[in-house]
């Protein structure tokens, strides 16, 4: 299960300080390590320097330096990738002697993963609303095909007035105007992975009668207009009332002043 990448014959003949990477699991002849999500990878860099001077090893993850503990630098150095995550795809690990950066060796992670289709979804949609069914099909290696089934038979796009879109990352089956007789059904999105077989997601679509939506915003606008008009009406009347009241006061006061 181990594999050592030998540097070129040229290095072997011309240089004495050559560097090798041992990996678990093994890399192929192009330096690719085949792995999956959540797995662990162990990389050990070694060199055959005869002296203890200048034997410090350096690791790069892509182009960034990997920080190494003291005691994991000299003569031999080990790095672990655990667990392997999606971001590790195509990551290049490079090792060299600090004293000679031109003598380097690399491995690349080849992370495979299935399309993430395992769950199921229940959807309730109103008559005449739009319906969108989405399946994430991103995988490595890429899925070779995606099939949509309706009640057990392949979806007839024309008959069901569906639109099908696939951008390589997701496959979307949609319709703009739901009709119970056409669209209430059990749907299955099936993606075929060359490595992991067929993965499916089930959608149960339930079409309900159209409900008359309460026209909330027009209602609020109407109420505001009515309120404003009444306030204005009261305000203008208020001035009259006040005017009348003050006139009355005046006329009332007259007899008093006379008294
Ligand atoms: C990897 O591990 C995570 C968390 O433990 C889990 O949710 C996920 O399903 C695993 N993925 C695979 C491909 O095994
Ligand atoms: C560094 O390594 C290269 C390639 O292996 C070799 O040609 C060169 O002589 C080395 N330089 C030193 C200073 O060891
Ligand atoms: C990565 O692994 C997949 C699955 O085995 C394979 O098809 C693909 O060719 C590999 N890629 C490289 C660059 O080696
Ligand atoms: C799918 O099957 C269900 C249950 O048998 C049925 O009620 C529904 O009308 C069918 N949908 C279509 C579009 O044929
Ligand atoms: C659809 O939803 C309605 C209301 O929630 C429910 O009464 C009915 O049983 C559901 N029908 C199906 C086929 O799930």
TrEMBL record:
It is found in: Membrane. GO terms for biological process: cell-cell adhesion. It comes from Periophthalmus magnuspinnatus. The keyword Signal applies. It holds the Pfam family Ig_3. InterPro entries: Cell_adhesion_signaling, Ig-like_dom, Ig-like_dom_sf, Ig-like_fold, Ig_sub. Keywords: Disulfide bond, Glycoprotein, Immunoglobulin domain, Membrane, Signal, Transmembrane, Transmembrane helix. This is Ig-like domain-containing protein. Residues 7-106, 115-208 form the Ig-like domain. PANTHER family: IRREGULAR CHIASM C-ROUGHEST PROTEIN-RELATED (PTHR11640:SF31), NEPHRIN (PTHR11640). GO terms for molecular function: cell adhesion molecule binding. It is a single-pass type I membrane protein. It comes from the Eukaryota. Residues 1-29 form the signal peptide. GO terms for cellular component: cell-cell junction; plasma membrane.
């Amino acid at each position: 299960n181990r594999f050592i990448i030998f540097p070129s014959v040229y290095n072997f003949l011309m240089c004495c300080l050559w560097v090798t990477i041992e990996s678990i699991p093994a890399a192929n002849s192009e330096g690719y390590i085949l792995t999956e999500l959540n797995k662990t990878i162990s990389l050990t860099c070694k060199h055959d320097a005869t002296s203890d001077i200048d034997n410090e090893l350096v690791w790069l993850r892509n182009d960034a330096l990997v920080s190494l503990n003291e005691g994991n630098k000299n003569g031999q150095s080990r790095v672990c990738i655990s667990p392997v995550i999606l971001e590790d795809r195509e990551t290049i690990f490079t090792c060299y002697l600090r004293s000679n950066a031109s003598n380097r060796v690399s491995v690349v992670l080849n992370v495979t993963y299935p399309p993430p289709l395992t769950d199921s979804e229940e959807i309730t949609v109103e008559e005449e609303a739009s319906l969108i069914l989405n399946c994430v099909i991103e995988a490595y290696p890429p899925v070779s095909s995606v099939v949509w089934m309706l009640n057990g038979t392949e979806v007839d796009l024309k008959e069901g007035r569906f639109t099908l879109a696939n951008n390589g990352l997701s496959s979307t089956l949609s319709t703009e105007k739901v009709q119970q007789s056409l669209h209430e059904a059990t749907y299955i999105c099936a993606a075929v992975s060359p490595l992991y077989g067929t993965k499916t997601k089930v959608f149960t679509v339930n079409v309900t009668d159209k409900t008359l939506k309460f026209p909330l915003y027009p209602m609020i606008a109407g109420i505001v207009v009515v309120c404003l008009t009444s306030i204005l009406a009261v305000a203008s009347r208020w001035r009259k009332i006040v005017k009348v009241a003050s006139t009355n006061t005046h006329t009332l006061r007259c007899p008093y002043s006379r008294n």
